Amino acid sequence: KVLKWFRGEYATKTEARQELGVNIIITDDVWYEYLKLFACFLQQAGYAGMLVLIDELVNIYKIPNAITRQYEKLFAMDGVKLNFTPEALDTIVDKAIEYKLGARGLRAIVETVMIDAMFDIPSTADKEFDVTADYVRAKLQQSHYELNSQS
Description:
This protein has helices spanning 2-6, 13-20, 31-44, 54-61, 67-77, 86-98, 102-120, 133-142, and strands at residues 81-84, 128-131. The chain is mainly α.
């Protein structure tokens, strides 16, 4: 199946996601952002360097209890597809690093960012919601997290 993906034999990303059993397809335009995000996660886990095979990246991303996966499932129950952009995840991780919050703090930041959307989005006609870096910054600023100019 992976060879089929590499050869470009899937007609749509949806078809590829379903057959490969993944939630997101990392395309040429965002792969570097995801790689930087994974490197940041590994650095926070205490690794000084990084040597990761593509197959391992897929496994890391498919961690079933990831906080973003939990929100994706919650939104899916209301028929809404939730997408976190790599830049949004990077902004969340940067804020957790800045405050030295660790995994629990990361969860708290995601909850702060998502609280309004949890109540607002399901009652709208929207069937897809993208969490972008700008959205994350706006919600953190609204909740009085101090944002520096680099976040």
